[in-house]
Every structure is written in structure tokens, then in C-alpha cells.
């Protein structure tokens, strides 16, 4: 019961954790980015002209759900006797706000209904807000280091929490037209495209498609390439899960072997009588294996109640919490899949019964005369 329950919880927690982290990373940064093909790796992006042909081909592919222009530019916020270096991420009205709306702490997203006012609006993370002692409605000045030095006033319209510290410490969000004006770009110049795909598991196919339709002057890279250490860490969780499952199966097998041996020793006289009456070794072994299967079945049922029940409670209540600074979220996430539960049950039952065949062979070593005398 405990073995299966822990296995169900382990798989549900790891899958839930991986899904939440992936959704946070791709929610803010998109699944893929398309930028100019050069050696520039700084936040001061190189510009290129909007490519309508590329946008049309990408939008016509069912794998791609959004193609959004963006640009970034580093700046310095000076307010309340504090200084903070940030990167302004400029977006336009086509930007998908679903993720940020879900993770808003206060205020609202940018309002592009007034193009003049949108250039003065700014969204910041709760990390930046905490460091600079800012709240929604506060006015700030951001300095952009260039020749000549430029500064722009902003009003805080929203405070968000993406859940990933590297993002929250780095980015603020504003209007891409402001970056165009600061960099002396025209209206058709952008820093890059942010792409989102329908199914994260189809990333390789989507990346191949984008590579094939990209002009030679552009290149693409995925969110895994943007945050390599984060996704390597997520891959290590799979190893931890495999080790946990192996340990739980070993514990369950050892317990069942012990139980079977005890049953055989307690029924030594019965085995002797059955043999004296002409029963074969295998027919007697099957009696004990059927009984062991019955016990395993009860354990699996109770394990499912324990594992699925606790997973469901956590899914609905978020009762068990985490430190967001260390785990990127404030609760233990759960992703329960019916196939995972079925495979864990079937695998546990099959492995236990197969392993129990060996100790059940102890029956063949029991002699009828000695067994009956043993009674």
C-alpha cells in the first residue's frame, strides 16, 4: 500500500512540477524566438524588417499558435534613492497576455487603446517592486545608456510574478514603439519574433518547420536553449523519479517475499498432507501464489486510495506549500494521469508475482513425512 501510494505521489508531483516550470518559462518568453542572424548576444537587440511572408507561413501552420513581435533594451531605474538595472521588453497589441494576467499581483496589463499613453506605461515584477519600494500608480524615470543619454518617465500599471527568479529580477514590460523611438527604428523594424506552439511535446517538429521557412538573415532558438540549466535540472528529476520507483518496488517485493515465506512455514503440515494425497509441487505453489496475489490486490487498492486521494486533495487545496525562492512556486504541483496509475498498478502486480515464484519453490523441498510429523 505504502509503496504504490508513494510511487503514485512521486510520479504526480514530478510531472506536475515539470509542467509548472515549463509553463512559467514558456509563458513569459514564448516557446521559440526568431532574431537577426549575427553575433549579437546582448539585450541591445539588432533590428530587422517585419517579414510578412514568414508571419503568414508560420500562422498557417497548426503547430504555431502565435507570432508576436518584440524587442528588448537595457535600462536603469532610479527611484526612492535606489538604482536597479533592468531590461525593457517591448511588445505590441498582438501580445498574448494570458500568462501575465494569470500571474498578476496588482494592477493590469498594458493598455494599447491609446498609443501615446501606452508608451508611458510599465509593468514590473514583484521582485523589482520590492527592491525599489514601488506600487501600482507610482511614477518613475528610466535611463537608457546611449549617445546621447536618454531618460523616459513611466507609470507603473501592473505588478506580476512569473515565478522564475531570473525573469523577475531582469525584465520590465513596456511598449515596443518606445524602443523603436529610442533606437531610431522605423515602424516596421523589430528586435525579434516570439512564437508559441500548441503542444510543447511537438517542439522538435515546430523548430524544424521554422528553420525551413526562415530567411537566411534570421535564426531561431527554443526556450530550452534560453534556459539550459533550468531544463537540465528538470531532466534530472526524471532520474530521481526512476530511483524512487525502483526503491519502492524493491521494498514491496521484500515485504511480499517475507509474507509468502511466513505463510509457507505456517502451512508446512498442510503442504505435507496435500503431497501425501498426490498433489504436485506446482499445484501447491499456485495456492500460495493466488493467496499472495489476493494480498497484493488489497495492498494495491489501499495504495490507490492513499496515493490518488492525497494527490486529489493537494490538487484542489494546495495544502502542502513550498518556498518560492527555491522551487519557483509556493505549492507542490500535481499532475495525475490515468495511464500512469494503470501502469504502476500493473507493473507492481506483475513484478511482485514474478519475483514470488522463486520463494514459492520452497514447497518442493518439503517432504510429506517430515511435514506431517512437524504438525
Radius of gyration: 31 Å
Q: Could you say how many structural domains there are in total?
A: 2
Largest beta-sheet details: 10 strands, mixed
Q: Mean of residue pLDDT?
A: 87
What is the count of DSSP helices, taking H or I runs of 4+ residues?
Answer: 15
The computed structural class is alpha+beta
Query: Which stretches of 5+ consecutive residues score pLDDT under 50?
Result: none
**What portion of the residues fall into strands of 2 or more residues?**
15-25%
Binned, the helix content reads 40-55%
Shape: elongated
If you had to describe this structure to a student in words, what would you say it looks like?
The protein is α+β, with helices and mostly antiparallel strands. The chain has helices at 2-29, 52-59, 98-102, 115-118, 126-132, 165-170, 176-182, 203-213, 223-226, 228-266, 268-276, 281-317, 324-327, 338-360, 368-374, and strands at 32-36, 48-49, 64-79, 82-91, 104-107, 121-125, 139-144, 150-160, 171-175, 189-190, 192-197, 218-222. It has two domains: 2-12 and 230-374, no CATH class; 38-215, no CATH class. The protein starts with a helix and ends with a helix. The mean pLDDT is 87.
Please sum up the structure shown.
This protein is an alpha+beta fold and 375 residues long. The chain is built from 15 helices and 12 strands. The chain folds into 2 domains: 2-12 and 230-374, no CATH class; 38-215, no CATH class.
Amino acid at each position: 500500500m505504502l509503496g504504490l501510494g508513494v510511487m503514485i505521489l512521486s510520479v504526480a508531483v514530478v510531472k506536475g512540477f515539470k509542467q509548472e516550470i515549463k509553463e512559467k518559462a514558456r509563458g513569459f518568453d514564448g516557446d521559440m524566438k526568431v532574431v537577426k542572424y549575427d553575433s549579437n548576444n546582448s539585450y541591445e537587440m539588432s533590428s530587422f524588417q517585419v517579414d510578412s511572408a514568414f508571419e503568414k507561413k508560420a500562422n498557417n501552420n497548426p503547430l504555431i499558435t502565435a507570432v508576436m513581435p518584440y524587442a528588448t533594451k537595457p535600462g536603469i531605474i532610479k527611484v526612492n534613492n535606489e538604482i536597479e538595472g533592468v531590461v525593457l521588453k517591448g511588445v505590441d497589441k498582438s501580445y498574448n497576455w494570458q500568462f501575465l494576467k494569470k500571474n498578476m499581483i496588482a494592477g493590469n496589463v498594458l493598455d494599447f487603446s491609446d498609443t501615446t499613453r501606452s508608451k508611458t506605461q510599465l509593468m514590473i515584477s514583484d521582485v523589482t517592486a520590492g527592491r525599489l519600494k514601488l506600487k501600482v500608480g507610482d511614477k518613475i524615470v528610466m535611463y537608457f545608456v546611449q549617445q546621447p543619454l536618454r531618460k523616459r518617465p513611466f507609470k507603473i500599471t501592473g505588478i506580476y510574478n512569473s515565478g522564475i527568479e531570473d525573469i523577475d529580477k531582469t525584465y520590465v514590460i513596456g511598449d515596443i514603439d518606445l524602443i523603436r523611438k529610442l533606437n531610431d527604428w522605423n515602424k516596421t523594424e523589430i528586435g525579434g519574433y516570439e512564437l508559441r506552439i500548441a503542444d510543447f511535446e511537438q517542439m522538435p517538429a515546430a523548430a524544424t518547420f521554422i528553420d525551413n521557412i526562415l530567411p537566411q538573415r534570421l535564426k531561431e532558438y527554443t526556450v530550452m536553449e534560453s534556459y539550459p540549466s533550468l531544463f537540465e535540472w528538470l531532466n534530472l528529476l526524471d532520474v530521481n523519479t526512476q530511483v524512487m520507483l525502483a526503491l519502492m518496488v524493491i521494498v514491496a517485493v521484500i515485504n511480499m517475499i517475507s509474507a509468502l515465506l511466513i505463510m509457507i512455514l505456517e502451512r508446512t503440515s498442510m503442504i505435507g498432507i496435500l503431497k501425501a494425497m498426490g498433489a504436485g509441487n506446482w499445484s501447491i505453489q499456485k495456492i500460495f501464489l493466488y493467496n499472495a496475489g489476493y494480498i497484493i490486490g488489497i495492498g494495491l487498492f489501499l495504495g490507490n486510495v492513499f496515493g490518488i486521494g492525497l494527490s486529489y486533495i493537494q490538487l484542489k487545496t494546495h495544502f502542502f506549500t513550498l518556498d518560492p525562492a527555491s522551487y519557483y512556486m509556493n505549492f507542490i504541483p500535481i499532475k495525475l494521469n490515468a495511464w500512469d496509475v494503470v501502469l504502476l498498478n500493473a507493473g507492481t502486480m506483475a513484478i511482485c508475482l514474478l519475483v514470488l515464484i522463486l520463494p514459492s519453490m520452497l514447497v518442493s523441498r518439503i517432504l510429506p513425512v517430515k511435514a506431517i510429523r512437524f504438525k
